[in-house]
Amino acid sequence: MINNIIYTTSLDGVTAEMLDGGFFVDWPNPPSAVAHLRILQGSYFIWLAMDGNSNKVIGFINAISDGVISAYIPLLEVLPMYQGLGIGSELTARMLESLKHLYMVDVLCDEHLQKYYGKFGMYNATGSIIRNYDRQSCE
Fold it and tell me: What is d(CA 67, CA 7) in angstroms, rounded to the nearest whole number?
């Protein structure tokens, strides 16, 4: 399917159009491509997976942080047609390496995804959340 995956931490040249087309699967109110770009721009750190043949973003992970002691990884997404190729694992490994200078790195995910993050040395914890689905689109 794809033999030229480029991983980058740079948003230089990335446009909303390069993010359009299938991220946020099963979200009731997904962010637009423009809001998605704003999310990445506002992040402490990002990693992108690009299809080197089409120059399209096919996966991403972002972290928000105080830059001193803690970070939170809110999003890891790979376009459905590129899943199963190890892209998500590569993005996760790169992000955790980028954040290794911090005391705590947290991911809050659905229970069925906890085993996935366990592969990276993360362990289950409890947490509390609020979800305002009417604001999920970032509009």
Answer: 22
